[in-house]
Specification:
The chain is an alpha/beta fold. A nine-stranded mixed sheet has the order 3-2-4-7-1-8-11-10-9, with helices on both faces. A two-stranded antiparallel ribbon has the order 5-6. It is globular, with a radius of gyration of 19 Å.
Amino acid sequence: MARTRSRSTVAIAAAYEMRPGRYPQHDKLALQEAVVAAFLRACPVPRDVVDGLLVTPAGMADGRSVDVFSHERLIDALGFSPRFSETLNAGGSSYCLMVARAATAIAAGQANAVLCVGGGKFPVVGAGGGDAMARLTSHPDFEYPYGAFIPAMYALVATRHMHERGTRREALAQVAVTSRDWALRHPDALMRDKGAITIEDVLRSRPIASPFNLLDCSVPCEGGGVVLVTRAELARELCAQPAYVLGFGEFHDHGVVAHAADFCTMGVDVSARAAFAMAGLAPADVDVAQLYDAFSINPILLLEETGLVERGRGGTFYLDGHAAKGGNLPVNTYGGLMSFGHTGDASGMSMLVEGALQVMGRAQDRQVDADIALVHAYGGMMADHCTLLLGRNP
């Protein structure tokens, strides 16, 4: 049956991300202020057109108490009074959800242009930061007391996927290799100066939690970014090629990882199906994918569960080079969290910015033919999912 593609009335008109690194001079609120200031310098947008603001809570990962009124603090810092604003948190999926919330508000006439802001701190894992993150994401009675820590909980997911889907250890390593190759094309990627890596390098790197070695893991750092979501007509006034918001879907599968309905699906397919249905598109229409890759298992699982690759074929897809430059479906063209950098609780902004830049034709040396981009991010232990479809034509 022929599909009817939906026509979008909302678009991303501008996207910016600061260089990942460490910013000890800024707490998270100051980092949010800094990234907005940098965005306004890089993407001159008339202040009077912005009437919406979405931001994540300050203090999530830097040891401070959480500020659930961060939007109010940022409103004061920016000196404007939006008619649509809130502090929103669903972990790494927050920023894709911001685009969905902004699109819904704009379609309802509640706003014309919404700034979606993320600034992220990442605790130093070796200095107790890993324990704080484990407390935040694991069950206080049945997981944390038994020594739960983030890589080990993801390792459970990887081990199950390898068992049920036949995913090979070398395929996980190839995810890291492919991500590094893309990072070599990004001037701001944290691991660019470290050079290319091989499957053997990954397999020989320091063991962390079986099946993961050090190079299977994302790189902790700090940073942030901003996207501006506007009415489609305004987006066309502000930029030559907007990234139109064609479809989105969300799903919240569980709280702690032990309560996941299925370790091989994690609820990803529900949000993806909703996004494709809204857009009137199918997985075969997607040209480039930006997928949340805290660990090397994630892109494999997310490719399969978004329908971009047949279940059980995600690992082979990577080993055959399809996710790399020149492949038939490039994945994480900015280097991913594994080689661009995992900017704490702003990490979900990275794949969103890259998806928008690819559609806008502004991805420089890593640009691919990207008429349709899929962005998928999640929060918590692969619990809160959001899928976005962005396109060059409304």
